Amino acid sequence: MNAMTQPLTHLVNLSEPLNFQQYSAQGGYAGARKALCEHSPEEVLEIVKASGLKGRGGAGFPTGVKWSFVPQFDAGDSRARENKYLVCNADEMEPGTFKDRLLLEGVPHQLIEAMIIAAYTIGANKAYIFLRGEYHLAAKRLQSAINEAYQAGWLGENIQQQGYQLDLYLHTSAGRYICGEETALINALEGKRANPRAKPPFPQVAGLFGKPTIVNNVETLSNLPHILKHGINWFQEISPDSDAGSKIYGACGRVKTPGLWELPMGVTIGQVLNEHAGGLCDGLKLKGLLPGGASTDFLLPEHLDTPMDYDSIAKVGSRLGTAGLIVLDDKNCPVAMVLNLLQFFAQESCGWCTPCRDGTPWAVEILTRIEQGKGTLNDIDELLKLCDFMWIGKTHCALAPGAVEPLRSALKYFNDDFVEHIEKHCCPYHGGH
Question: Where does the record place the NADH-ubiquinone oxidoreductase 51kDa subunit iron-sulphur binding domain (predicted)?
Answer without folding.
Answer: 335-380
